[in-house]
Each structure stands twice: as C-alpha cells, then as structure tokens.
Amino acid sequence: MSDLSDHPLVADRLAKLRDNSCPSHEFRQHVSDIAKLLVLPATASLATEPTKIKTPLQEMTGQKLSRPVVLVPILRAGLGLSDAFHQMIPEASVAHYGIARNEETLEPEIYLEKFPPRMDQAEVIILDPMLATGGSAVAALDGLKERGARHLHFVCLVASPEGLARLKHDHPEVIITCATIDDGLNEQGYIVPGLGDAGDRTFGTL
User: Fold this and answer.
1) Exposure pattern of 107-145 as b/e (b: 16+ CB <10 Å)?
2) Which residues of the chain have pLDDT under 70?
3) Containing H/E element for 178?
4) pLDDT at 105 (0 to 100)
5) Amino acid 102: pLDDT
C-alpha cells in the first residue's frame, strides 16, 4: 500500500481542499493535482513486457504495458480523479460504476454498471476520493470480480483506518494507493477530519 501524506505537494493540496471555504472550481483543481501525483505510485505494479524498438541511433529492447488498462471511477465523485489518470494512460478504457451510500443504513446501493468487455485481461484501477466505511469499495470489487477482473487496484484521496481494514480483509490482494489516512469515522460514518462530501464539493451541489 502507498500513502503519500508526507509528500509536500500532496500535503499542500490536501490542506487547501479540506478548507471549508474552498470553492468548487478550486476544489476540482486540487483534486486533479493530487490525482496526478497518485498516478505514478498507483501504476508502479502494472505488468510490462519487452518490445523491440529502434531509436535514431540503434535498435534496443524497451518495455510496454502488457495488459489493457480500465479506469473505473465510482460515480460521481470518482470522476474528479479520472481525467488525471486518463491523461497519463490515454489508451485506457473508462468504465462507470454508480454506487450511492444509503444514509440510513450506510450500505452501498448500485444504480449504474457500464464496463468494457474482457475485464479478466485488464489492469483495473478503481478511483474513489473517499474510503470511509469501505462499503462502496468492497461492493465495487465484488462486482468487478464477478465480471472476471483479477488485476485490481484501488486509488483514493482520503482513507479511514476502518475502511482500509475492511478492504484489506475482504480483498487482501488489491493494491491500494491513497493520499492520506485520516483519524477515523464519526457516528454518521463520515471520515474525520475529512473534507466533506467530495461529490457535492466537486460539482457544486452543496
């Protein structure tokens, strides 16, 4: 697991987007900035294979990704992370997984599923800004595994210890990358100190 909370740029952007006075357009930019910094550690374990290339001077053996990549933003907040990853991996497919949390039970409810074919052959990167109770992440991974996905990665901005523990327990093989780990959850199941509702703050629907 990778945690980038000690990185100066990550810490700076996190402080800015946590601020309750941060307007939506700045919030989106800070999320995008952090996502760009998460791309490298999140993709460090992608499988590669040798490929013959010819430079202007000579032939050599380079490396290329050996599996297709599928980005899976959890709607709607995950869309704030997807552009940065898509810029770095433009050949990636983008799936859409609509999962909302029932505010009474705190359990996930799936309302949209749109995936490319042959998920079993892909490196699948799930994007969700917040890992709170872990319910949505576990539900997403359960669904992706039902579709054959085997090479799974989970990326978030802010994680709770409780959410990480649940995710590691239910899906121990999943590679996790997060910007920071917060103190825990409040009685309503929200991360504290957190940053509020990432979807509402991203899209200005507070």
Assistant:
1) ebeeeeeebeeebeebbbbbbbbbbbbbbbbbbbbebbb
2) none
3) strand 175-181
4) 76
5) 78
In whole angstroms, what is the distance from residue 110 CA to residue 168 CA? 21
Cβ atoms of 149 and 138 within 8 Å: the answer is no
Beta strands in 35-167 (DSSP E): 48-54, 59-65, 69-75, 93-94, 96-101, 108-114, 123-127, 130-131, 151-159
Domain 2-45+67-203 has CATH 3.30.1480.10: no
pLDDT of 107 reads 78
**Cβ atoms of 81 and 94 closer than 8 Å:** no
Domain ranges (residues) in the chain: 2-45+67-203
pLDDT tens for each residue of 70-96: 999 998 889 999 999 999 999 999 999
User: Around Cβ 64, how many Cβ atoms within 10 Å?
Assistant: 9
| Inter-residue contact 39 to 85 (CB < 8 Å) | yes
Look up residue 5 and give its two tokens: 């909370």
Confidence (pLDDT) at 104: 78
